[in-house]
Specification:
Length: 113
């Protein structure tokens, strides 16, 4: 069993909130799915030149790679919410009441402050 995550991806300590700790503890599972999707897309790409892979279109491979990146950037817990610091879960519009942000939202937040 994996050790519970005690920090976000930026190294910030997590609060003792069960929901936030659980989100970060499970984030490695989401990244693993994205990694698998990327690996499978690259495997499809390598099969394109084989007799069986003649109908594997470049667009399919590209779409899968984009989806893997999307999962990492837009769906995976990255940082505690800089607006509420996970102290106003249920009342914070910045993090959609989660107490955390994915990398994409965090980058936008930091660029705007």
């Amino acid at each position: 069993m994996a050790r519970p995550t005690r920090h976000d991806e930026r190294g910030q300590p997590l609060p003792a909130d069960k929901q936030v700790m659980s989100a970060f503890a499970d984030s490695h599972k989401i990244r693993a799915v994205a990694d698998t999707l990327e690996e499978e897309a690259l495997e499809l790409r390598s099969l394109q030149s084989s007799p069986a892979g003649g109908r594997i279109d470049d667009q399919i491979v590209s779409d899968l790679l984009v989806k893997a990146k999307h999962i990492r950037e837009y769906c995976t817990p990255y940082a505690l919410c800089p607006a509420c610091e996970a102290k106003r879960i249920g009342k914070c519009k910045a993090c959609h009441d989660r107490g955390w942000m994915p990398r994409s939202a965090w980058k936008i937040w930091k660029a705007s402050t």
